[in-house]
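Researcher: Please translate sequence to structure tokens.
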Amino acid sequence: MSDDAPVPAAPLPGAGAAGVPGVGPPAEPGECLGLGLDVGGTEARWALADRRGQVLAEGLAAGFSGTQVHDPAGREHVVAALAQVAAGAAAAAPGARLRVWAGVTGHDPQAGDALAQTVVHTLGCAPEALELDSDIALLARVAFAPGQGVVVVAGTGSVAVHRDAQGRLHRVGGRGGLLGDEGSGHAIAREALAAVWRHEDDAPGFIDRSVLAHELLDALGGRDWAQTRRFVYGGATSRGDFGRLALAVARAADRDPMALAILERAGAELARLATLLVQRHGARQVLVCGRVPQLHPALARTLQARLPAEVACTLRQVAVHREAAVQAAIPAVG
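Model: Translation complete:
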């Protein structure tokens, strides 16, 4: 979130004390390395890679939004977070020159170069060695060559993106919890809660008989309307908290047809997002990532079944910071 306090940079699981996973020799002083940086509102993930495609180090830093750089307090937070990245990279590869691929949530390339200047200054890279875009655009860039594929991201929210042969980014969905995000964890939870209370209005006592209602409302800490009202309208629930209720829907799916149908509709909505871009741009590959496709096999089956027959669909997670680091290092060859 935008008001998170900075946290110390830390190696990811399996990394050594300096964040070096031991997959290759340490960098030579002055060597040009790729730094991949994937920044969300809660945390930033970074990785260093050499020209052989070996990831030398990776770690975590505080997250931020690209919009924060435009006010003094927000800019201070951005600088502090980037300083964590710089410190981790310097500890892993002292004296290395950096070529940076960074994706930052909330960054608008049309809003000026204030964020780019901050990144260059804090990380110490040359301006021409920085490729900066939004986090979604960076994911699209590392996932497919231009014009080759569509990426669907389904977590708390949902969006589909395609980078065309000219490098332009096209997107559908991603309208947020009020206007869209169909097929997302937030949308699944919203539909399930609404259905439970609608059926309770239609037939009092439905909650006592419904597996879905039990899983959902017990996750909220109570089966009365007052508990649901506090959760939904009380002001203390984050979008992530709301979206995590999709796990309760998944737990009920094998025992409750209503829960199963909600997950199948979510899969169909995600397929719709991908199909729109496939039809407009002629892509023949779809990558689906995020936690929602992993909720239940029925959701993934429906998603794949609703895509055009000629489209190859892959469901996997993408370590964007690692992929970006490796690809950023490629121009350093020679």
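Researcher: Any highlights?
Model: The radius of gyration is 22 Å.
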